[in-house]
Amino acid sequence: MTSTDFPSFGGVAGSVGANLPALRGHNTALVLGLLRAAGEAGVSRLELAAQTGLTPQAVSKITARLRTEGLAAEAGRRASTGGKPATALRLVPGARHAVGLHLDRDELTAVRVDLAGRAVAVRHTPLALAAGAERVLGTVEREVAALLAGAAGPPVLGVGVACPGPLDHTSGVLHRVTGAPEWDGFPLRDVLAARFGLPAVLDKDTNAAALGLAQGMPAGAGSFGYLHLGTGLGAGLVLGGSLYRGPRTGAGEFGHQIVQLDGPRCGCGQRGCIEALCLAAVARGDLPGAARALGVGAANLVELLDIDRVLLGGRTVLDHPEEFLGGVSRALAAQARTRGGPGTRTAVSVALAPGGARTVADGAAELVLAPLFGGRPPVRQAGQGD
């Protein structure tokens, strides 16, 4: 992958293509995105042309190249409607793999996935993020080596890394991670790319999760907020179908909205952050209080962004799903009642995020896969100069 292979991040499969040589990578990504979305049933060349706006000749050239590279294969023939039955093409998921890493404050989850985003190998190990770079990097290297053991597998496109923010996903540099301030300024993406000899991508854990979740939703599914409550509290935002990071990767610092003036001290240095209130309530066994605090934050988010749904994840939520689903649902229902008369406003839906404990790690792998299917997060090539 190079920086000119794919369009800027935010494109979606099915967008109109362009019959220009300079956009060969863009057009290929559109076709691959449609093949991925079609699944095993596949899609015909004429359907690909209709959905991308490319000429049938351009589609034929692209699909021929994809078949040569092992990325596409025949999926059978369509039923005839009077003419020659059309041949359907499908993605070959096992043709390439990607690695996703979730570096939490106390645990590392590593996954190896195919092009369809399905995990083919998973590893979990304890991790002390606050123990310093060398110890953490040593653990990461060992786990990735074990994940990739067996040279007979398909080529690995790269490594996606998701960890707590704040950070700058464009430069691949960490900032003052709550609870581990010694990482401030550490170029994690570049270091891992050099150590693995693979392209690497870095993003916040909540952004990675939201990106992965968005891939599983139908086109036009709208906007949602993914709220992750584990060792910390954050949000990933998908607005109008696209992941929203903000220009400084600052969007989604959900846990550090102040909801209680002069409240308890938060690890970020402020007082009264919703993260501090939630984690303190969990620590003292007050799950209804933690769920109520999370619900207040979710209602604030809905009020601010008018999103369509809220998805909940993170180990604390997964340990007590009914408690948190109920608390957040009640908060959003109360909000809906106060913002309009009966029947004029429906409460935003709340659900557990699909993926369970692997939601973030799977999303980290999607950071690598996204360029192939129409989006381009910033990627550091191994050995690439600044």
Q: What brief labels describe this structure?
A:
386 residues; globular; Nucleotidyltransferase, domain 5; 11 helices; five-stranded mixed beta sheet
Structure report:
With 386 residues, this protein is an alpha/beta fold. The protein folds into 3 domains: 21-91, Arc Repressor Mutant, subunit A, CATH 1.10.10.10; 96-209 and 360-373, ATPase, nucleotide binding domain (Nucleotidyltransferase, domain 5); 220-353, Nucleotidyltransferase, domain 5. The protein is 35% helix and 20% strand. It is built from 11 helices and 15 strands. The protein has a 5-stranded mixed β-sheet. A 5-stranded mixed β-sheet has the order 13-12-11-14-15, sandwiched between helices. Strands 1-3-2 form a 3-stranded antiparallel β-sheet. Strand 4 and strand 5 (107-114) form a beta hairpin. The longest helix has 19 residues, at 287-305. It is globular. Residues 1-23 and 376-386 have low confidence and may be disordered.
Rounded to the nearest angstrom, the distance between the terminal CA atoms is 17 Å
Oligomer: single chain
CATH-derived architecture of the largest domain = 2-Layer Sandwich
Structural category is alpha/beta
Largest sheet report? 5 strands, mixed
- Mean pLDDT across all residues, rounded? 86
**Beta content:** 15-25%
- List unreliable stretches of 5+ residues: 1-23, 376-386
Output the CATH class name of the largest domain.
Alpha Beta
H/E element string?
A: HEHHEEEEEHEEEHEHEEEHHEHHEH
